[in-house]
Amino acid sequence: MESIHPLAPLAEIYLKALRQGNADAAAELIHQASGVMGIDALYLDVFQPVMYEVGRLWEYNEMSVADEHFCTAVTQTIMAQLYPRVFRTPRNGRRMIGACISGEQHEIGIRMVCDLFQLRGWDTCYLGAQMPVDSLLRMIEKRQPELVALSATLMNHVDEVEQTIRAIRSACGKQGLRIMVGGQPFNRQESLIQQVGADAHAPRADLAVSTLPLCKAA
């Protein structure tokens, strides 16, 4: 099944290197591109669409689990190499926490979201995959963020998202704390956003940042 979202030339070359198992070529391509492109552009025009395509290929059995993991791991490594530029941005005093809910292993999407907020001056706290609710609550209490972004990629994780949001509302009770969700279940069925009790939904990493001004706390 062909993709309905054709990739830009740079993204096509990057994906080809990944599918050939050539991490060095993929890294060198991004290194060269980073000299003329901003970090935002690399994330939004290369990493994000390529990882969507990797997910699509896996979903339609056109890519093995091992290959999907390889593509993800290489991309995360390259993203980490760009971090000195990500964290160079002056801070604006605003704070957010990003995490995958308990049981969710696919973390690259929420990592991109956190990095894009960081690029815009936010003090971000990226907690990664499979975050236990109790640990998340302690971090919220410690960091006092104005935004918590939660990620889930599978439909059977929606109940866990709802339970996590309920726990946050109950334990924190912070006026003005906003909760944003992202992932395929919410992209495919928008009614789930209200069902889980979220304040907003971001179908893509770039839209997470632009959606926030329109997002009102519950």
TL;DR of this structure?
The protein is of the alpha/beta class and 218 residues long. Helices cover 55% and strands 10% of the residues. The protein has two domains: 78 residues, Orthogonal Bundle (Methyltransferase, Methionine Synthase (B12-binding Domains), Chain A, domain 1), CATH 1.10.1240; 120 residues, 3-Layer(aba) Sandwich (Rossmann fold).
CATH names the topology of the largest domain as Rossmann fold
Distance between the termini: 40 Å
Largest sheet: 5 strands, parallel
What is the count of helical runs? 11
Order of helices and strands: HHHHHEHEHEHEHHEH
Question: Can you tell me the CATH architecture of the largest domain?
Answer: 3-Layer(aba) Sandwich
Q: On the 0-100 scale, what is the average pLDDT? A: 91
Helix proportion range: 55-70%
Q: What structural class do you assign from the helix and strand content?
A: alpha/beta
**Poorly predicted spans:** none
By DSSP, the count of extended strands is 5
Task: Give an overview in words.
With 218 residues, the chain is of the alpha/beta class. It has 2 domains: 9-86, Methyltransferase, Methionine Synthase (B12-binding Domains), Chain A, domain 1; 95-214, Rossmann fold, CATH 3.40.50. Helices cover 55% and strands 10% of the residues. It is built from 11 helices and 5 strands. A 5-stranded parallel β-sheet has the order 2-1-3-4-5, sandwiched between helices. Helix 6 links the parallel strand 1 and strand 2. 33% of the residues are buried.
